[in-house]
Amino acid sequence: MEKNFERAVIKIKKTTAKKIDVLIERYPELEICRGTLLAAVEIICESYRDGGKLIICGNGGSAADAMHIVGELMKGFLLPRRIADFNPEFVKRAQELFPADVDYFKTNLQSALPAVSLVGETSLLTAFANDVSPNLIFAQQIFGLGKRGDVLLAISTSGNSDNVLFAVEVAKIMGIKTVAMTGRRGGRLRHLSDVSICVPATSSHTIQEFHLPIYHMICLAAENEFFGD
């Protein structure tokens, strides 16, 4: 059992929690992660409910995962997120300022769940790695972008990636909650993070094969919580 997350952090919709059941029905091996999956969904939904954002980092394939997650959260995933339904104040303001464009905005803009990947800022990453410290490339961005109430999703198949670990440490210093996705052993990340989802695999590629459906579930759950029934 990972830390003390048997008990719910906050209350979420039954239909949101059901996303975890559906995941485990498809991947029965993840039953051992049920408690931490629930805790991760609850912490992320709590952050969004309070105006926070999700920040994601990882290396290699996990860097690609970080960008993938942003793509699912910052626009509609499976549910419609019409701004006319979820952000009428924006539509009203658009009508006042740009009446010729308001229908185009209403048709195409979608409500977002704020998410930021720390892996795509090439100029910043290369400059900081070269001029200062490569191990702090994510920590520097957490320091500059993060705020209390945000959540850091730290992805590392080994659980021992220094740049990811330093990002988690800086997040904790700043009062930012941390969720880890890692492998069976979890490395140092397992005990450093507030919630650690340690999937039942030990090699990088098999760990990543579990990570993808897990973060898809997290995105579906968050979308359902704020845009579903």
The total strand number stands at 5
Rg on CA atoms, Å = 18 Å
Please state the overall shape, judged from the principal axes of the Cα atoms: globular
* Unreliable residue runs: 1-9
Would you tell me the structural class of the helices and strands? Answer: alpha/beta
Helix content: 40-55%
Task: Walk me through what this model shows.
- The chain is of the alpha/beta class and about 230 residues long.
- The protein has helices at about 15-25, 35-50, 60-75, 85, 90-95, 100-110, 120-130, 135-145, 160-175, 185-190, 205-225, and strands at about 55, 115, 150-155, 175-180, 195-200.
- A five-stranded parallel β-sheet has the order 2-1-3-4-5, sandwiched between helices.
